[in-house]
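Q: Here's a chain of 100 amino acids. Please give me its 3D structure as tokens.
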Amino acid sequence: MDKPDYHIFVCNSFRMSGEPQGICNKKNSAGLLQYIEEEILDRGLDAMVSATGCLKVCDRGPAMVVYPQNYWYGNVTEAAVDDILDALENGEPCEEYLIT
């Protein structure tokens, strides 16, 4: 398998210690996985998507990270995904949702 241009990690609030799931999961981050996957295919982006454990930015959830660019995004919705992927296609971050 070739390394993709982008690897998108979406927080799903999994916690090894058994703590209750955080805000990302409660705000349907699992549903974002399928939406992102479909958008990547529709756009022909060379990217893969993975669910992650808690990213520890619960106050900004749902959260996602794009590597290797190291862009951290918060308050991600389907509309935000569209904006974020548009920005990636243009080779830039989507400033509106960046966590700084």
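Q: Can you summarize the key feature?
A: The chain has a mean pLDDT of 91.
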